[in-house]
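Lab notebook: predicted structure, single chain.

Context: the supervisor wants predicted structures on file for every construct in the current expression panel, including those that have not yet been purified. This is the next one on the list. No modifications to the sequence; it matches the entry in the shared construct table.
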Amino acid sequence: MKKTIEDFDLSGKKVIIRVDFNVPIKDGKIQDDNRIIASLKTINYAIDKGAKVILMSHLGRIKLEEDKNTNSLKIVADRLSELLNKKVIFINTTRGNLLEDAINNLNSKDVLLMENTRFEDLNGKLESGNDNDLGKYWASLGDIFINDAFATAHRSHASNVGIASNLPSGIGFLIQNEIENLNKIINNPKRPFAVILGGAKVKDKIGVIKNLINKCDYILIGGGMAYTFLKTLGFNVGASLIDDESKSFCLDMLNKYKDKIILPVDSIVSKELDGDITLKNNNELDNDDIALDIGDKTIDKFKGILNNCNTIMWNGPLGYFELDKYSKGTKEILEYLSKTNKEVIIGGGDTASAAINFGYKDSFTHISTGGGASLELLEGKVLPGIDVIDEK
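Prediction complete. Output recorded below exactly as produced.
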């Protein structure tokens, strides 16, 4: 069992907390501050215990010098100040005397946010490549390291693995909550247990299917990946997205688990993304039809199966939900599940975005903050950003 923030005496200590402030920003404004809000419990705990709080996060991708202009964490520092109701000291660099002096001058209960860790990627991807010297340098700035950025836990970066390799370390409340909820549903679900999988390509979910197929009672498949399965069964799926390299995997799964794998029976189709839409059964698609959402019969079929289940894990939207006319399937299943007393885990990424943006933020057992991280945990993989943390 990993150490947590509660296992340390934080009073007067310089505590580096790796948070996930990778929020969407448009025209100089934060569009969604849920990731900042999700970090508050750990930050407030450190403040209450008298820590000198040093926050680190990435924001976007930094490939060119000009990318710095639109990916500074200054706007996040301002928003965090509002949420904490206290001044957050922002240092617009990732190393050097300015940063070191500011940290050394911190008082207990002060909060400092340093600049985007990925600014270090301009000089040879030192952050995302987990440069040994950078990890040691950042570790030298503090006394204790707490990782609370679940969304990056599947990556080995200087700001998580690098620092944790050089300091006493633990996890924060956000990561603790993620691990407990995801492991519980994987290892000890209330049966019947259904997994809903969507998204574009089968190959992105092969690991999840392999890991969960013998642990669950049903896998309901929607989104673009459903049409590779349907084509494998001999249906004409028109011009729908097909993952040719995964067809043999689909055939193998359908042969072995035909009673567990539930596929769409109808779809919302169009000749082009912004064209007119038509509802068609599986055997009615023309060669130029593109399937972009599950249809009404499929929605009812999925609801019927989910009605008999006690635990549901969902990763991947059921259609091209970003456009309203292809969002019905995802919306209706979200609404249906929100009105039940079932254990429902939303597995991060686009599914979490859909759940939050459609108004279901507080409707489920757990909505994961990490798309790639939750996916890899569902695949049974070890997450390096958590694996490196000290054991109790």
